[in-house]
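[Automated response] Your request has been received and processed.

Submitted sequence:
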Amino acid sequence: MNKVAVVSGGGQGIGRAIAWKFAAQGYSVSIADLDKEAGFEVIRRIRQMGGQAMFLRADVADEEAVHRWFRLTQEEYGRIDVLVNNAGISRNAPMLELTAEQFDRVVAVNLRGAFLCSQQAAQVMRRQGSGSIIHIASTRALMSEPDTEAYSASKGGLLALAHSMAVSLGPYGIRVNAISPGWIETSDWQLSSRASAPHHSERDQRQHPVGRVGTPEDIAEACLFLAGSGSGFITGQNLVIDGGMTVRMIYD
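Generated structure:
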């Protein structure tokens, strides 16, 4: 039976790599993104590979738009096996100047959007008796730079959402986990007209015990693992993928 992966924010960056990775493994892929041009570029590439894909321009903070996306996905493919909540934005500003409107928008997309998508996917997965939901959080949920309050709070909320949903949805055969990426270079995973070749200094590389900056493929591979039977005993967890950066003590 052909499996189906649903990816929010699948038009560019990490989401693009995730969509392509699942398609390459034979999944039919449904993506949503606000960037129409990027979204269509992704599904064209998947179809050129011989895969099946659909795209809907949607704001995941909009409940009606999310319902429409999942309804159309079910009509097209009939099932949902994997949901990757990847859509995310940031509005970094000095804490004393960050507006409530800016804070609310970040939380609405990053956290509310993940909840809305998860709720819709879980309805389908419950009927199937199986499914995997993956939240793309961030190491910013665990550590911070200045002026990242809205982003950090939203990503921290995703970690809490992962373990609470894992307990609530476990009886239906649904596993829920989070991935917290560290420094992931996405400049070459944008819409082709905006993509650029990445460049990192030796110091950038040496900050990571593995000796390099991360790539979107690193996160996509982890998503594929958490979606598969090999991770069948893993739920409610947060997988930190940062090349070891958060465990290294750095003194400048």
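Summary generated for your ticket: The mean pLDDT is 95. Residues 207 and 245 are 7 Å apart (CA to CA).
If you did not submit this request, please reply to this message.
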